[in-house]
Amino acid sequence: MRGFRVAPRLKKLSGHILQAAHRAAKAIVANFCQKSYVNRMSTMNISLPETLKSFVDQQVSGRGFGTSSEYVRELIRKDQDRQTLRRLLLDGAASAPTEAADDAYFDSLRDRVRSRPAS
Question: Count of domains in the chain?
């Protein structure tokens, strides 16, 4: 079976289209990277005793982190979540008592959700 021949002008045009698409894709990726949080990171150096450094290195390799920075960022995010939860719990404990959250309360919540129009 013979292959198709592509006219030289069409071949040149398709090459230009591919180049334009490639340039557009590169511009989109560059724009995303400029706006993403990665470019807004600051650098912080910390000193650790050898035992802690070894522990961090083990966590990085054993838990799938790419770098020790990723591991530390994850620890900080978890600490932020923990502090937020603690604040919410303390605010709830300091608030005035409300009605009991018994079976009737949850039944009324379910009824309210079921009666909402689908969006």
Answer: 2
